[in-house]
Write a structure and sequence with these properties.
Shape: globular
Oligomer: single chain
Radius of gyration: 23 Å
Structural class: alpha+beta
Helix content: 25-40%
């Protein structure tokens, strides 16, 4: 079974209320806190978020800003302060850049502001650039059964590599569930090689006993018992000097990572066996159109579907954008996007300025639809595909938009590029750009929309 198929299957099994709770980080944190499971300290701030609000609540370890809904680390930012200077994800930024970043985050998401966590002494040397190792505990239960631990994995930042690179951005250390001792570390691009050390002269991984491991397992089982029945939950936990603190729980964590520890003999029970038991009790599957499935998934996010045609249009436009980028060089695509101008060109500012409220509502609805649908389609639909799809959908409605292109280098000096779209004075797709991204140009309408 592919990772995507497994994720979709797990999401459909068990209680819909349980899946909805796991999708809402704030509601889940409140549920866990009520059960005496430790969660990060959360701050109440004004919206839109501003620098003054950050300065009021930031502590010595910094803050983490993340959307209330979502998964996979999307749109999560770590904010720290050194003297009068600010950093976003470890990168120094000036006040103007930070203000723009906060405005973009606030415009696109309902934000949660939490204290940034640091590791206990027994793991502090495995942190890198302020990123603490994360313990992932996979828990599951069969229908009407009690929660149990399936596996434990310590996820380490890998110096010199981009964290979101799936194959080599992180080191995964299988943990013996009986002793809490790491077996070593593996990188997904070379899973047959077990690392004793993070790097050649770096800290040791193998043989390391995790502090507060037994307490983390106890709290994970307690946490799962507070969630309406679902087959499995993967808990992300930071082992702090005060004990385990739960960041979040995912009901459809990555299938590959979920089964990785089984390769090294550290899995208590394979997730596939649990899913088999749930499938035995599941209701017969109804044949439904792809549009009906997408509509149901959209409704589960709590956002109204005003027109099912908008969801279908988003799918088709994303697919068309993906196909065009596969068969046509971008310079040819650019000929149909309008006039390429400098970022500070007055025409660019005017094209994306505040428009009639009807246009603003339409642009916002298109942006939210694309952001959600892009997570479900079975093909690559990232920033450029979303920007092209949004540009086409807005153009059909005679709403001018500005498609921005930027580039930069991440903290490891590796090249990165990004595309984002705005219209009617609002962010549509691709917001917020990473702080390292600098705009190099933008496309504005060649003529006034008719």
């Amino acid at each position: 079974m592919s990772a995507r198929s497994a994720a979709l299957l797990v999401r459909e099994l068990g209680s819909p209320d349980g899946q909805a709770l796991l999708a809402d980080k704030q509601a889940l944190a409140e549920r866990l806190k009520a059960a005496s499971v430790c969660v990060p300290g959360t701050h109440t701030v004004r919206n839109p978020l501003c620098i003054e609000e950050l300065a009021r609540v930031i502590g010595p370890t910094g803050l983490v800003l993340k959307p209330r809904y979502g998964s996979g680390g999307r749109n999560v930012s770590a904010i720290t302060r050194t003297g009068d200077g600010w950093q976003i994800d470890g990168l120094d930024v000036d006040a103007g850049r930070l203000s723009d970043h906060l405005t973009q985050l606030s415009a696109g998401h309902e934000l949660i502001v939490q204290d940034r966590l640091v590791s206990a002494d027994g793991l502090a040397d495995l942190s890198w650039r302020g990123r603490a190792p994360v313990l992932r505990l996979a828990t599951s239960r069969i229908p009407a059964g009690p929660p149990q631990l399936d596996s434990a994995l310590l996820i380490l930042p890998r110096p010199g590599f981009k964290p979101r690179n799936f194959l080599n951005g992180q080191i995964y250390a299988p943990i013996d569930p009986d002793t809490g001792i790491a077996k070593g570390g593996v990188v997904l691009e070379s899973p047959d090689t077990m690392l004793d050390f993070r790097e050649v002269d770096g800290p040791r991984i193998s043989g390391r006993r995790l502090p507060f491991f037994a307490e983390a397992v106890r709290d994970a089982l307690l946490a799962m018992s507070t969630v309406p029945a679902v087959p499995a939950i993967h808990w992300d936990i930071v082992l702090t000097p005060m004990g385990p603190v739960f960041l979040e729980g995912n009901g459809n964590g990555n299938w590959i990572i979920a089964n990785l520890v089984g390769r090294y003999g550290a899995q208590v029970r394979p997730l596939a066996a649990t899913l088999d038991r749930w499938l035995e009790t599941a209701a017969p599957v109804r044949r439904r159109s792809a549009l009906a499935i997408l509509r149901d998934k959209w409704e589960r996010t709590g956002k109204p579907v005003r027109a099912s045609g908008l969801v279908l249009e988003a799918v088709l436009c994303l697919a068309l954008a993906r196909l065009i980028l596969m068969v046509m060089p971008f310079r040819k695509v650019a000929e149909h996007l309008g006039d390429l101008v400098a970022p500070d060109d007055p025409r660019a500012i005017a094209a994306a300025s505040v428009a009639p409220s009807a246009n603003a509502d339409t642009a916002a609805r298109i942006g939210k639809t694309l952001e959600t649908v892009a997570r479900w389609v079975p093909f690559r639909a990232v920033c450029l595909q979303q920007a092209l799809a949004g540009h086409a959908m807005l153009r059909r409605r005679h709403i001018p938009s500005v498609l921005h292109l930027g580039s930069g280098r991440d903290t490891d000096r590796k090249f990165m590029a990004h595309a984002w779209l705005e219209a009617a004075g609002l962010p549509v797709t691709g917001y917020p750009p990473a702080p390292q991204i600098r705009e190099v140009g933008c496309f504005i309408p060649a003529t006034t929309c008719r």
